[in-house]
Design goal:
Layout lengths: L2 H25 L6 H17 L6 H26 L17 H5 L6 H14 L8 H13 L2 H14 L4 H9 L23 E10 L3 E9 L2 H14 L7 H7 E8 L6 E4 L36 E3 L2 E5 L8
Parallel strand pairs: 2-6
Antiparallel strand pairs: 1-2, 1-3, 3-4, 5-6
């Protein structure tokens, strides 16, 4: 394998590790393993950085965004596990209150993690000027540290990039700022934000009794997204569902995003044939433009924030119901 071949694989591996960390923190499950996984992701980024050419700006940007995300997750894990902070990182629906560090970390033990998160985010801030992920990470770190003006500026930048990001809107309101009129992001008929084209698989599994869990997986091609969708169905094969039960407990959608254009959506459950009436289920490919070019494609391993959530590279392993 050449270095050129190894680079995408390393970036995708790092993204998968970050995704695993995010899911552990979201589910509050086995979070003690997060530092080890983040260290492994950092080694991947370091290996890629050592091979970077002077003209490889896209890969350098992916490394910068990945390092910012790694630092943000490290601060998240420490606040949650070590400081017992009630900041609702786990479902991405909230952020820290201003100066939360002073309340939960009087000795300032998390200060090195905060400094690293701020530095990494500022380094990556212009790496992908269309995506709101990095300024949101910067805003959270600054808010945690008590830098109100810096946090306000970072959250405002999130909304400049994606006016519909509810987390940034809530944080600005909490900081006493006037929040701009809400815009749309990725909704029906509204243009996709950002500067890359990508395919996104959204999956929600559950029912009214035990609730819903969801994942969103981004890919640079429609074919790769289809493989992610197949993986979701395969992971449910042992659940012994009928076709009717599948439709009741799984929402599975393919979205195709082009910068500044309306999002195209396919309900993939509608593309699962009525027969056989029980799994393993397959998606009928007809009517899905698998060969549609996505230009410019989302770089390998690049996380993307869309509709107020952070999406990592695909390859799902769905928990069994």
């Amino acid at each position: 394998m050449t270095d050129d071949d190894a680079t995408p694989a390393l970036l995708i591996k790092a993204s998968a590790l970050l995704r695993a960390c995010g899911e552990r923190l979201m589910d509050d499950a086995e979070t003690d393993a997060v530092p080890r996984l983040l260290a492994e992701a950092s080694r991947c980024y370091d290996a890629v950085a050592r091979q970077l050419g002077a003209d490889d700006a896209e890969t350098a940007a992916t490394v910068a965004v990945g390092r910012s995300t790694t630092a943000a997750l490290a601060l998240h894990q420490y606040a949650w596990d070590e400081l017992d902070c009630d900041w609702s990182w786990e479902d991405e629906s909230d952020g820290p209150y201003l100066g939360h560090m002073r309340e939960f970390d009087e000795e300032g033990i998390s200060e090195p993690l905060v400094a690293r998160a701020i530095e990494a985010a500022r380094t990556a801030l212009d790496a992908d000027p269309g995506d709101p992920l990095v300024p949101l990470q910067l805003g959270h770190a600054l808010c945690w540290s008590g830098d109100r003006d810096g946090a306000v500026a970072a959250y405002a930048e999130v909304l400049r990039r994606d006016p519909g990001d509810l987390v940034a809107r809530d944080r600005l309101a909490e900081l006493g700022e006037e929040v701009p009129e809400e815009g749309a992001s990725g909704g029906t008929g509204s243009p996709s934000p950002g500067r890359y084209a990508f395919a996104l698989i959204r999956a929600e599994a559950g029912n009214a009794s035990w609730g819903w869990s969801s994942i969103a997986l981004a890919s640079g091609t429609v074919a790769a997204a289809r493989r992610d969708a197949d993986g979701v169905l395969s992971s449910l094969a042992d659940a012994d569902l009928t076709r009717e039960e599948l439709a009741e407990m799984l929402r599975l959608t393919l979205e195709i995003h082009h910068p500044g254009q309306p999002v195209t959506r396919f309900d993939l459950i509608d593309h699962v044939p009525a027969e056989p009436r029980s799994g393993a289920f397959l998606i009928d490919r007809s009517g899905i433009p698998e060969g549609e070019p996505l230009d410019p494609p989302l770089p390998p391993g690049r996380p993307v924030r869309i509709d107020g959530r952070t999406c990592f590279h695909g390859g799902p392993v769905w928990p069994q119901p």
